[in-house]
Amino acid sequence: MAMTNPQAQTARMCGRFTQYPTWAQVHEAMSIIGPRRNLRARYNIAPTTTVEAVRQGEEGREIVPMRWGLVPVWWKKPLKSVPATFNARAETVAEKPMFRDAFKKRRCIIPASGFYEWTGEKGDKQPHLFTAADDAPVLAIAGLWDRWRDPEGEEMLSCTMVVTEPSDWMEPYHDRMPVILDGKQIDAWLDGSAGTEILKPAEESALKEFPVSKRVNKVGNDDDPSLIEKDAA
User: Fold this and answer.
1) Which domain holds residue 68?
2) How many structural domains are present in the chain?
3) CB–CB of 17/115 below 8 Å?
4) What is the CATH number of the domain that holds 99?
5) pLDDT of 1 strictly over 70
6) Nearest one of 55, 52, 87 to 69, comparing CA atoms
């Protein structure tokens, strides 16, 4: 299938993140069921690439590979025509045509290790990595998923992150941030009993930040763990 250009999208909202927890760590955080498998460690994920997402299956929660950038089930145009749908705004997620059906019926959680934002001037941007303040291996980012079939009948699963206004602490870095759910909210989000009222910025004490390598500014190097070293060159 054709892919859109991730480099053209990463300047908007939350456009890059890391995902390197083990299956056991995701299981402990979200009680996923098997089959147990090795999860690929990713350190610089850009939109339209494949990520892991947790959804409610018929027999329990399961972790499933999905395209990061939601394609609604009703989409009739080519995949390359899909707009930037890797983020969904908390304020409008229940109403926007791209997301409202998934909000009602198909929610997920993206088990991230951290996410990036940038400071500085164009051409000399400094990436900053945001991770759990207590070093927990999983940030439970609220998401939505959908199932789409291309004209040849091939099925594709896709997902989006829900983003909200920033906390006061986050605002110097960006005017949006991912919705990070705590353990008590995970059940209510996945079973649909919670609405937009829980899509709020995380407590300022929940995250920590540090500058990392400017090599993060390029896509295509997401297998490199040295990217997330503090103050890496």
Assistant:
1) 6-228
2) 1
3) yes
4) 3.90.1680.10
5) no
6) 87
